[in-house]
Amino acid sequence: MSQDAEFDLDLDETDIEILRRVEENSDVNLEELSNELDLSKSAIHYRLNKLKDADVITATSADVDPLALGLNMMMLTEVTVSHDTGYAEEIGESLTEVDGVCQAYYTMGDIDFVVISRVQDRDQMNGIIDAIIGIDGVNATSSRFVMKELKTGSETVANMSDEMIQNVVSE
Fold first, then answer.
1. Which of 3, 32, 44, 65 is buried most, with the most CB atoms less than 10 Å from its CB?
2. Shared-domain flag, residues 70 and 137
3. Domain with 123 in it: what CATH number?
């Protein structure tokens, strides 16, 4: 779905509730959802398939705790680049290929990209910075180091306001 797409999906409150439950636990089974939402298993199955076909649900995956793997150092790096033709796509792709990079964003303003990385130690952190600086077209970086994670996760529906939900729910 395009980032600038209108809310042209035919969703209702039940779809939002299904999304909320699946987002909380991707392992939830049809029978549990059926009982909780007072719908038949086939209705739940149909709605889940509809949400997958519309690319609202893009994957079913496990949430791995990075701290359990020793990835206890998080770094936010601002990247400034040369503005040549096609720079956003080329440099953006190169940034996503750096080992340790979890997220990369192309931004507007004084900074061109923001990169979020996780590592286990300072040597790995320095390696990421060296790799980023080594990308053709990168002019400068500025990094910040996370001291304490206050809110993490990829919960979309759980973080939506009532107004946001009403914007996507069909009348």
1. 44
2. yes
3. 3.30.70.920
